[in-house]
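A favour, since you know our structure tokens better than I do. It will help me judge whether the discrete encoding reads sensibly. The space below this message is yours for that.
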Amino acid sequence: MPLDDQNSDFDSSRISESTASSSDSEYSRQSFTSDSSSKPSSPASASPPKTVTFDELMAAARNLSDLTLAHEIAVNENFHMEHVDLPQNSLEGRVKQIVHKAFWDLLECELNEDPPEYDHAIKLFEEIKETLLSFLTPGANRIRNQICEVLDADLLRQQVEHDAVDVLGLANYVINTMGKLCAPIRDDDIKQLKATGNIVELLRQIFHVLDLMKMDMVNYTIQNLRPQLQRNLVDYERTKFQEILEETPSALDLTTEWIKESIKDELSVSYEPTSSPGANGSSKPNLSPTLVLNNGYLKLLQWDYQKKAVPETLVTDEVRLQKLKEKLNEIQIIACVSLITSNMVGTAIAGLSDFADNLKRVSAALLEGMNKETFDLKEALTAIGVQVCSEMNKSLAEREFPMLSMEIQNSLVGQICSIVEEDNPIRSLIDKRIQQYLKSLLTLPGIQKCMPVIPGGLAVIQAEIEAIGSQYAGIVNFNKQVYGPFYANILRKLLFNEAATGKGEMDAPTN
């Protein structure tokens, strides 16, 4: 590949999503600062603080990057790599464009000389040869030998000396070989190459298509790697996290604080001292480790992801959890609108089987993008209220019933707009019932196939909350499998004032 393109196959690629995952730098900025380490299968005793070197920090960052990438490949079926060009209006994009133009202009000048100069062209064919060879499987000896023979640099230089080099013929050979090696999705690109007449532009486009083929190869490898990763992901992630702990003096501080907050929440709800005093002479609260941990997981669906770093053990699922939170916020508003409408004008909509679905569809459309900072929720709720009144009046008119009075319409719009207030009683009620549902979901045994009963007032969003709950429970239960021993070690110290034992007898249940 010409110039700096060869420096990294992934310089012009990005994680695509559906992935929407954070960059390595974003993950490495997370605070990995805990004073305990652990074996892959269970936490070990706390180690004294030590000074971390730059190399150790970089090793930890690499381990986190590997862990994050492996987790994303295994759990995200849509994960793939995409070739992305730098924006032309960016500094990097302009520099790359200028340098590449200079290179191809120079190549064109050399080929147009009399006699032509082929040094740069031969170097390009050397790079093309290495790229084509990288696509071959170990047993493809015949085509490997053919590529090496046709694109041999020494042979090409001898042909130049005898004025026998055929650049266009070599390019056509390369195109035909690419056609044999490429994925079917690249067939149209190969056809376009064959239709390109200018030799310099042809070489330029050959490199572009080769870049695309590299991405295809990476994605093919990812696809084949996924089943193996899925089978071994628990052990792999636990081992990688252990390596992070070994390279960093304190790598569980945020996780410890997260569990501490959960304990504090549970203590504020109920405090039941044990019959015997704790090791420090004071009575200890009789809290269930599973209850504490599940409460911590519930907090993740109310987390301020813009301002507050997630626990280190949940970094790999941060994006997924944030999206679930955003979806939950949206359906919570829809449930509130539905409940307010039903309470105020329930008799008017009785018998209208499709009214609830229409109301949900209208509300969802007007709430699109509600998690963006620029979104005006009150304005959207006003529009929803007006639309609800309009739909109801239309339905009443069709049945030759009297339409809603302006007083009722204004009251309905006003109550819907009041949902924007955090202490709104309807919003608090719906939130409490959603939390109740999700909490019951986390207590189900792993073999349980049916979903918990939907609490009252949530029937309108049943399909949505069950889908969210299923994804959420999957994230939580897998996280428990991987990090259960680390959580057990922290809970043992916080709840029972015990030193870390390195044993797994208190591993958090995976449900």
User: Anything to note?
Assistant: Strands lie at 13-16, 36-38, 43-46, 80-83, 273-277, 283-285. The first strand starts at residue 13 and ends at 16.
